[in-house]
Amino acid sequence: MDLSISQVYRSRKAARGLITGNEEAQYGLLRDYAEMIRRTDVGSKVILQTEMENENAEPKFKRMYIRYNAQKVGFLGGCRPFVGLDGCHLKGRFGGQLLSATAKDGNDNIFLVAMAMVEQENKDSWTWFLEQFADDIGRPEELNLVFISDRQKVLSSSSCS
Prior knowledge:
Order of helices and strands: HHHEEHEEEHHEH
Oligomer: single chain
Number of domains: 1
């Protein structure tokens, strides 16, 4: 069997699509996923923010904040009041950033407290994430939380630090 390079690439792309699915279709399921989390994991918090390009267009994904109930219970009940903030790039067709807030538990393990998928890592995204975190977990000054980040822009732009 002789195949050209372009045939191999097209076949590989089709196979990956069958395995991982269509990214655009997956974004369309986020509303259902958020509702399922709210319904099945009482006490969890999910915020899905979309924007409309015009009145007739479909809503376009902008940001999503997720914190499961066990994360809040575990953080408030067994972690040190020390929160690490970080962001990483999302590889894929639509890109974006994954922002996270982590803590150390009693066994010195890293404990994920909350996460958000945002359009890009900037002052607006970090401020939004930290406001959601503070409204959800509690005000940092009330809980005596200390924040640390390897990025100056995270803490200097935050209204919650």
